[in-house]
Amino acid sequence: MSHLNAGSVRAKRDGAGRGRSFTDPSRGVWARAARLAAPVPPHDRSMESFVIEGGQPLAGTIAVSGSKNAALPILAVSVMTDRPCRFRNIPLLRDVQTQVKILNTLGVETHWQGRTIETRIADDYNSTAPYELVKQMRAGICVLGPLLARRGEAVVSLPGGCVIGERPIDLHLRGLEALGAEIRIEGGYVHAKAPKGGLRGAELYLGGKFGSSVLATDNVMCAAVLAKGTTIIECAACEPEVVDLADCLNHMGARIEGAGSPRITIRGVKSLKAADWAVIPDRIETATFLVAGAITRSPITVTGGRPDHLMAVLDVLRQLGVGVTRKGQAMTVVPCDRPKACEATTLPYPAFPTDVQSQMMALMSIATGTSVLTERIYPDRFMAAAELKRMGANINVGNGQAIVHGVERLTGAEVMASDLRASAALVVAALAAKGTTRISRVYHIDRGYEKIEERLRKLGARITRVDETGGDAATAAAVGAGM
Predict the structure, then answer these.
(1) 162 given a catalytic annotation
(2) What is the pLDDT of residue 378?
């Protein structure tokens, strides 16, 4: 991902005025850096796999990256101010790169250096987030609220991302309509327009079939920040990523109260100041590494996380017989010889997170007894089960539940990643399995875990990224998470 470490993109209108392209690298310091960001040779990441020799004990310390799910909506607030912004602790991930490209199409210049992204508005001619970018990840929809608030209109493609069941955006649209927006869906795009005089504050209920929605809360909260009057969101999502976005907006001059609770109050302001913000650590990555230590019976230490964001995960690990000692932001796994069965149910924060369900299923698959995982957020999100069964797991899925009958040990096999978190589950399972596991389609994991194979190797894991097309495996690994 070297192109991301010093990556910078400058966007301008093309001749037709419908898109943006990289400017001549000779124009200005930001444009010169585009030489590093744009012309990386294309690489077919869909043909990359991980080859993992399991059964190796892990040891040492692994640091947590910044939260992807916090970074994506926070980057989107760039369009809400005409002042330059600086965002720190940004993870080097494919989804973040996609978000940067979306911002470029919207007239935002970006300069990416290490884990810091600086942004500034070059123009506001285009308010369309195109299908070819938004289809790559569901979080692309998070530009909808900021665009509508600042520019009075937004045209955003219906989102893509992992295939883990139906995930409609009706809550986003309902919330924005409550603020006075005119919404229509046409040609696969959401067309949103503020009424004459701008958006207006309102009291609204944002609960849905499966509870609150993080991205819907983000979108409505952003829109309400620049609306006239006061907005009250009932049944708001309480996740730490929502709190981080609210804190960032308040840092920019917004007036938001109650973030982290089901009731958020936003008093509209006329404009926002510049941002200089560091995103929170990734709680899902933290949990994944803790599970990796537990499943390999290894006392690894995970640093830079937030234990207070992981209370439900730590409780499930405790029920499984896995201890975690805490010292500041460092957490060390106290492994057991073999986990014991337990039950866990995914629910909105602060309950057990759906994004850790697949990884915990892998750990439960080697527990003594029968565990039950109930999925209340995305009932179809058991994509990892079939592939874990190829490794010897005994899992029955139905009616939103996975019944996991523990086996003594998993065995290596050829498996295929189907989504981001399922791919993480396969990696941790392969670390503990007897023999060699080959995981194909690992581009899914690159969406949410920065150079995971390199970081696990530092702990002693035997994991290699290979290019199934017969190309240079070292080059494939170097391109890794960025392309």
Answers:
(1) yes
(2) 86
